[in-house]
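U., I forgot to send this yesterday:
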Amino acid sequence: MKIYSMTATFGKLEHQTLTLQPGLNIIEAPNEWGKSTWCAFLVAMLYGIDTKARTTQSILADKEHYAPWSGAPMEGRMDICWNGRDITLERRTRGRLIFGEFRAYETESGLDVPELTAANCGMELLGVERCVFVRAGFLKMTDLPVTQDDALRRRLNNLVTTGDESGAGEKLAQTLKDLKNKCRYNRGGLLPQAEAERDKLEEQLHGLQELNIQAQRIRERQQELDAWMAKLQNHKIALQYAQAQEELQHIKEAIAARDSMRAQVEQQAAVCAALPPETEAERVRVSLQKLHNESMSLQMEQQMLPGAPVRPDAPKYFEGMTGEQAKEQVSKDIVSVTDSARKQKKHKTVIGMGIAILILGALAAAGAFVLEALQILLLAAGGGIAVLGLVLLFAGSHSKKKQNRVFTELTAKYGSVNTSDWRAAAEEFATTQLLYEKEAAQYEQVTAQFHQRKEELLSRIQTLTEGENIAACLEKWENISAQWKVLGDARRDLQRMESQIAALQALTKDVPAPVQPDELSNTLSETDALLSSAAFEQKQNQLRLGQFQGQADALGQESALRLQLRQVRARIEKLEETYQALEVAQRALSSATSELQRRFAPRISRRAQELFGKLTGGRYQKMTLGEDLSVHISAQQEDTLRPSQWRSDGTVDQLYLALRLAVAEELTPEAPLILDDAMVRFDDTRLKTAVHILEEMAEHKQVILFTCQGRENSLRGEGQ
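Result:
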């Protein structure tokens, strides 16, 4: 297959077209130009986009990674040549299905190419799966090493070990393995199925036997329950018969008691006929009882009445006075004391004057002895003055004694010289007298009201009892009411007795005597419980028998099951023989494959070694490729093969380029070879050799080399 051109709306590419030529195409462009995007677009056009892939922290899913930056739907076109036919491939986004709409048609005629579909396009055009093409014909600097993949490993293993790409030996081995797995694979396969069927049939037969045994036991138990229930039924009839006889006896006794009670009612009715009517007796009794209760209550109330207030003791100086009189008397006495004090001051003045006059008279008499000429006159004047002084002194002294006596009498009367105490005593006496008078008035009012109520009650009692003692009268009417009550109770008891007799007679049934001897001693309730339990067990047993029958029907007929079991056992024997034969065949094929591996030289190893020798100028001539695709090499003068990790980065890139080119020649001979910056770390000498190798390969297949440097173009056509 060769590619003419590609047009893409893919990632950063917006309706851009890349035109290619047969042979070697070297596309030189700077970083971020879109070289890797064109490579991814080529793979997506051939194999589609995995829309189920999810973005992780380390990997961005292609559907998001290459979504057009413009926001337009992802779409593309590729013009190719396949088997001599010019064909156009188109993929468009339909709804949420990215690149889901696919069409392949002849470029000139527009006729569809039905053998190419969205699912098989890459496989049909290139002859390999997507993972094989990406690892074999699609070379990037970042993933030059050939990593493990089941499809790639299978193809490489066939080429490396047997030299046969058809995989006939592996197909035969796979066929034997599939047949063996069909017979037995872990718990699956025909043998485990047959063994499971055998175990199931044996289990069914065993289940049928167990069901038959259990059903027989239940049938025997049903017979025992029938006999037991017959005994219980006979015992129940005996108990019911005895109970019926006992009930008849009770009815007879009740009739006799009713007749006796009826006679008592008639006798009591005769007694009550001579008494006042029941309603009248009850009315009088209730009234008397009410009056009696009121009388008792009044007596209790009389006992609880407070006594008459006691007049408080009055001081002797207030005896016979009221409170107001006492206060007036105190006021008068205080006035008397005040006047006496004032008069005492006046008397003191008179006494002073008398003393002064006496002294003056004495002085006048003394002067008479000195002045003889005036002796008579002075003696007369002195005598007069002395007499006046004595009179004043006597009058003052007498009045003072009188006032002192009044004050002494009053202080002795009140017991205090402080007149405020006299006034306080009068106030206290007046307050006590006022409180006493208020309590006395209240007592008189309560007493008057109580006597009035008592007189009214006695009047009502007198009217109702007509002078008879109320207690005796009440007792008489209570006896009359009691007689009527006895008659009412007797009549009600008689009516209740007649109702009970009628009910017993209605419930009494004619119960026949038991026909079989009764050997049980259970009560009727116990017998009913036993019958109910036995009936329930019978019903449960019947249900279980039905279930057993249904289970037996589901298991099938015993004869048919035994026939199936014989057939299954025969099939198991045949499958075991086949399984053993397949194991023998697998061992023989494995031995033959090992022999082929020893006899045939690996073509890929030889071609990769040849290319690697050219790239390194003959320095490395030995290389081995393991089944796990690991590579070991040795340089000149080295006796030991070493893993690729022992070499420089550039040498490792050249080693894996040689291996990838050898793999591409073998696995994808018709597919274009794509290289994306795969030779960046090559030196000029080895890069020139690599370009020459690519030119040789381009003679047979289309080679597309994307590079960010100009060395490849400058070395093109120079050869070695």
